[in-house]
Amino acid sequence: MKKILLTGAAGFIGANTVKHLLAQGYEVVGIDNMNDYYDPGLKYHRIQALKSNMLQFIEGDIEDYDLLDSLFETYKFDAVINLAARAGVRYSMENPYIYVTTNLTGTLNLVELMARHKVGKLVIASTSSLYAGQKMPFVESLPVNEPISPYAASKKAAEAMAYTYHYQYDLDVSVLRYFTVYGPASRPDMGIYRFVDWIQREQPIQLFGDGEQSRDFTYVDDISLGTIKALKPVGYEVINLGGGNRPITINHIINQIGENLGKKPIIEYLPFNKADMKSTWADIGKARTLLGWEPQVSIEEGLRRTVEWHLAYKSISA
User: Fold this and answer.
1) Which of 47, 224, 312, 313 could disulfide-link to 10, CB 3.0 to 4.6 Å?
2) 294-312 as b/e, with b when 16 or more CB fall inside 10 Å?
3) Which long-range contacts link 160-168 to residues 24+ away (Cβ below 8 Å)?
């Protein structure tokens, strides 16, 4: 049985990954700073049912080197899954500094302590936002040297730092570039969450652009299971985790949600945000061959589950 430190454990992907790790028999120590980027009540909701089965859950920050050092010393981890991050492209334009301190400095703390405590395996979450301007479908070998948001730039920096520690200390690293993750209990600033909320309340959807921009939507359970598969030894590899099919337009997603709710969406069109990508599409060939992973949940089923959760927990998701 492997002992895992999972950062960002109360986050959207983090809590879901904890759930699947526990189901597969892993021992998990989770850490999350429970910041107020969005209502922490949703984070407590996600982690509450999991805490009793974890070795420990700590409200703390990966920027706190001494706290992390004590955890490494106490638990003798076999691997680290770093899902702690400041997320959100648009908010990174308003407050870029916290993206550097969390996404880069926090990552540096982790890899430095892994080297010191001889923890050999790191799985780190990165982003499809790095592929802006590249030819689709995006393959991992593309140059990603022109990030168009501080969020993407901070993720690129974290990838580079992880590579440095792979090179210098033989750290085994799986860098996972996630593609538009969605599902129950997601962040309230995410598009699908907001669309469900607005349509349910019969409020206008604030849509940046004409809705023909498209994404490679990937259901959160698929992402979590791929993240766990990435614990295998790979050396240093960048791996896309995405839906794998042709990208789906935002207009199609809005219409599907409206059908699930039995309501007609009302749309307020706003100017396109230049920090957003117009389309994303993952080539997931490497994930198939290297990890034996591919997504299982269709967009129709994923949206049905998402709407179902939202209706059941609307007091939390309001």
Assistant:
1) 47
2) ebebebeebbbbbbebbee
3) 161/104, 161/107, 161/108, 161/111, 162/107, 162/111, 162/122, 162/124, 162/236, 163/236, 164/111, 165/111, 165/112, 165/114, 165/115, 165/122, 166/235, 166/236, 167/236, 168/115
Helix (H, G, I), strand (E, B) or coil at 222: helix
114 Cβ contact partners less than 8 Å away, ≥ 6 residues apart? 72, 80, 120, 122, 165, 169, 171
Active-site residue list = 151
| Type and span of the H or E element at 315 | helix 314-317
Distance from C-alpha of 318 to C-alpha of 314, rounded to nearest angstrom: 5
Q: Smallest Cα–Cα separation from 15: which of 37, 36, 40?
A: 40
Q: pLDDT tens digits for 83-126? A: 998 877 777 888 899 899 999 999 999 999 999 999 999 999 99
Question: For the segment 145-182, what is each residue's pLDDT rounded down to a tens digit?
Answer: 999 899 999 999 999 999 999 999 999 999 999 999 99
pLDDT value at 314 more than 80 = no
